[in-house]
Amino acid sequence: MRVLEFGDNKAASYAGRLFQQYGAEVVRVDLPSNSLPNDSDLSLDIFLQTGKRRVAIDYRGDQGLALLRRLAGESTIVIADCLPSLLDEIDWPHFPGGIRVSITPFGLDGPYRDWQGFGPILQAMGGYTYIIGNPNKAPLSMPMHYAEYQAGQFAYMSALASFVSETPSAEIEVSMLETVMTLSQWTTIYWTMQQKIRCRDGNRMGKVHPVSLYRCRDGFIYLTIVPTFWRNLIAMIGRDDLLEDERFSSTTARLANADALDDILNEVFLDYTMAECLELGQRKYRLPVGAAMTLDQVLNDEHLRARHYWQDVNVPGHGNVRMPGAAFRSVPATAQSPLEYQGADNG
Amino acid sequence: MDKPLAGIRILDLTHVWAGPLATRVLGDMGAEILKIETATARGLRDMRIPIPGMYPGGDPKDEFWNRDGEFNKLNRNKKGLSLNLKSDEGKAIFLSLVAKCDVVIENFSASAMNRLGLGYDSLKGANPQIIYVAMPGFGTSGPNSDFVAFGPSVEPMTGLTAMMGYRDDEKYTTAMGLPDPIAGITAAAAVVTAVAQRKETEQGQHIDLPLQEGTINLLGEKYVEAQLTGHAPAVNANRSTSFAPQGIYPCAGEDEWIVIACPNDETWGALAGIAGIHNSGFETVEARQQHHDALDERISAFTSGCSKLELMVQLQDAGVPAGAVHTAPEVLSDPQVRARNYFVEMGGEHIEPSPYPGTPVRFDRQRATSWQLAPKLGEHNEEVLRDLLGLSNAEISRLEEDGVIAKLPPTIEEARRR
After folding, report:
1. Chain B residues near residue A321 by CB distance under 8 angstroms
2. Which of A170, A222, A307 is closest, CB to CB, to B139?
3. What are the Cα distances from residue B169, in Å, to A131, A132, B161, B163, B236?
4. From 3.30.70.580, 3.40.50.720, 3.20.190.10, 3.40.50.10540, which CATH number describes the A2-182 domain?
5. B14, B59 in Cβ contact below 8 A?
6. For residue B273, what are the CA distances in angstroms to A33, A241, B270, B315, B318?
7. B197: which residues sit within 8 A by CB, 6+ positions away?
8. Chain segment A1-14, per-residue pLDDT in tens
9. SUPFAM superfamilies in the record, alphabetically (chain A) (predicted)?
10. Do the Cβ atoms of A143 and B182 come within 8 Å?
């Protein structure tokens, strides 16, 4: 299987990354560029493009477009994440290639079809951003390419499903805004069922408590104490007195007195380190506790190392870096083959 | 038009969010989903007591277990079989179904299926080609594999919380359990991958898909950057490392906001023109990064007097990437969303018609049709047991009497018998 990908919104590249992991030959077409990438851009390029064949073509001109069409004609699947206006220019409905997949910010039709949409814009318009952050401050975007990569996952699975289908589609369309809306939690449902708007509530989830982020001695921990775990939390922190406290005597009471409960827990956990919270909370009291690990801690985490999660990539000038490997793997997990990164102009 | 996964049958043991989302997506693409449920719980809800849920009009009515909006959102296009997997007969029926299916998917804790005697070896014994997808929080191996995992507490273990907030010392989570929707879509991709591989090799497989690893994958470039530079990416609130200015700015009204991003000098020039900001000193992205605080003040002063929806249109028409921070009703009423008929109206005799999120994928430019409302508890008990396993009506009645299958939560059933 040969997959061709081009465009500039990261979603096609994430889909291509999945096809590369699946074992397809993936050809990435970049637009020529003279600018030097900063650290963030280079990191993104390493993460998304390692393992692919690369070629730089200016497909905005006739000659380049002809070359792109020839490459597409040799491909099983062609994935593009351009704006619809560029897809119009390259005559997308008649573009060569087995299965054509477009990933656009707002879809191929509708009043916003030609609007520009980056991750933070799509998170906001899709209903994610409004509920994240401090209620007394601006909402927060997630510092990641969520809409892009999730749309890439939809593109990958749709194209692969179509490829193995008895009746493959010629064209698949993925909307990134609709991707975000598809992955909503209880925002639109809260409105359609009860005409209530879910608002930002800091780190709380709003339906049961204590479910929030708490300071500890060396960082933060997250507790997800649904009612089943309440007694074990009390046992862990040695505060049997809270079992007798009317303010916390039921699920409803704990929710109603969340501020008071948080004051107590924030004070209690200052005596613990993140590691102690995990050891005591998870291993002894079987509680859903998570520690706010730094990237360095995650990179050196014993659990992930034991699972052979990281994949080594040799980056010229930098040596080996560890990159997330496949997000799903056959059991038992084994070491993943190292890869070689090639920059955009080495294709 | 046939959907691409037509002919693929999936046994769905998942609950809460990540797993049901995965099978909803697979069902949207045409797979036949057989949802196996215990009679005592749907999602996290203990059905023996009517606790607050998201019911239409806030009213649980008599069949509260069939009326929860979240459950109905996540479980459309599925058939429902209520089966007691703790009984020997329930296990035997389950393994008979495994023999008739292509995929088994579950998101229990790592050891739950083995404790039930239904681990991969048992499933493979019933169907050598079975694809088995497990979605434990931290995987089926490794020192943390038995950690208790819910999406919200897994999220900080991915590094996301360390990067997210207003400042280094003021950290935030998404407060929604982001590993769940990530793992859900990753799991759907995993199933399709395994189906494609089986077509080539005729082999099934056991796939492991931890919530933690799925989310780390979506942060991949951050991990690369941390190693290249020797330090973690800064906590950047709503700013970008490449674009400037970029931020979330206040608009007229209470808690009204707009996202604006300027990926290049041209878009910045257009924004400056509309906002009446003198461009001198801000011509380059480096200068705009350096003076971001001052720029944000001027942009905010302008946006504060604007309607977020009108400004979004004005800026986009001028080529400036912008988007209103939508509340839920604004998402539903957005002109683009309505023009593309994204939301799907579904209802039944037990639940009022309501719009539910659709799918972001169109095959050959067509919206999927034939949406089926989520099954009521045990709605397809007879159909599945009769059509797939050849059981007689008498056998099915006996299974119901013995509590192996059910259509009502236990206490409701007992009350009605009395």
Report:
1. 224, 227-228
2. A307
3. 20, 17, 11, 11, 12
4. 3.40.50.10540
5. no
6. 28, 62, 5, 10, 10
7. B203, B205
8. 999 999 999 999 99
9. CoA-transferase family III (CaiB/BaiF)
10. no
